[in-house]
Amino acid sequence: MKDQEITIIGGGLAGSEAAWQAARFGAKVKLYEMRPQVRTPAHTTDRLAEIVCSNSLKSDEPGTAPYMLKEELRRAGSLLLEVAAETKVPAGAALAVDREKFSEEVTKRLEAEPLIKVVREEVTEIPAQGQVIIATGPLTSDKLSASIGKLTGETQLYFYDAISPVVDADTINYDIVFRAARYDKGGADYVNCPMTEEEYEHFYQELIKAESVQLKEFENTPFFEACLPIEEIARRGRDTLRFGPMKPVGLVDPKTGRIPYAAVQLRQENLMADSYNLVGFQNHLKYGEQKRILQLIPGLENAEFIKYGQIHRNTYINSPTVLNDLLQVKSEPRIYFAGQISGVEGYVESIATGLVAGTTAALLALGRDAVKLPRESAIGSLLNYVANCEVRPYQPANITFALLPPLEEKKKIKQKSEKKRLQVERGLAAFDNWLSQIKFHKSATITT
């Protein structure tokens, strides 16, 4: 039916992008966000598109898979990528944002758009009619989760995700730390805490015996492998941290002229540069233990923590059994899933699913045909994984070159960098062709 209103449940990254994209086509949108009426364990504001974990949207270095995904979104007119560019903070080759300014600007633009009505109330049941995008994220309420369970016929899958600590910039010991980006890419945007072997050994031993917060729901915590708490990484072996979040590779301490034995990187949290987050240091230690352990890091011996690491529940569906490659529920195509609940991992991946769901719902609402994304594109490959992954049990994925189809090589290309360059070139060309097929019938009424 033409001109039907699109209902979007959830005002996070995916829901916000979906609403914006639908409005760009001239479709009417009702965007539901339960905050502030109903709070979550992780959010601290009632703003749309609030970022609760790391403030990094990962690499924006040309030739990488994350760059390719971002570039497709930019070419498609992504609101969130546009705002990210406006609120970015120094982060080397990565795209990181001032999370406060980011969510403030997204909220302002969505609330100012006449085709989007933001409704501040909890949705407990999936609407029985009309096109519905479920983008409630990893902290979907229990009542709506029950409704989703009835729809999908699947038991919901859970994993636990952890938030990194944030430290007051004024309490860092700058006589010990040094500024640099790994391999000098993107400027000296990170604060680095170097460790000797003896300092690392002491830190490691204290970490593995530190007291964690007890989890009530499960005896065996199903952590997501791409976001393990540091204490879980440490328990897998003495040097696992040195090959993970504490790897010193590509960092030279100017005070010694040498690569440290281990290093902790701090990334600027906001444009004021008054706070830094500990990169990759998500954990679920008790707060007192966190302070004790983290102050063992050279340069943080007197650190004051604005935010401690914490752990919260993440929810996602078994998407290969539920969704097609346009994120529609196979048994009821008027319903879509987008964001982390759809079975992707990562901020930009969530934004991408919101763009696809919003675009597809708008096309169908306005009486047009949906157009599948090309498999060669980053977004198309991500959707292919979501809809067709054969690995069991299903685990969410970030964008990587492994998800893209291989090149049809007329001659063998030996250099990996050249292969990646050609894959990016091929994918962006295919994505541009998709954009030409879905071009807007009328100008959007977007207010900036």
The fourth-level CATH homologous superfamily of the largest domain is FAD/NAD(P)-binding domain
What is the H/E string? Answer: EHEEHHEEHEEHEEEEHHEEHEEHEEHHH
- Overall structural class, as computed from helix and strand content, comes to alpha+beta
Share of residues in strands: 15-25%
Oligomer: single chain
Q: Briefly note the CATH topology name of the largest domain.
A: FAD/NAD(P)-binding domain
Instruction: Give the beta-strand count.
Output: 17
CA gyration radius, whole angstroms: 22 Å
- The CATH architecture category of the largest domain equals 3-Layer(bba) Sandwich
What count of domains describes the coordinates? 2
Structural shape? globular
- What is the CATH class of the largest domain? Alpha Beta
Biggest sheet, in brief?
6 strands, mixed
- Strand line-up across the major sheet: 6-2-1-7-17-16
Helix segment count?
12
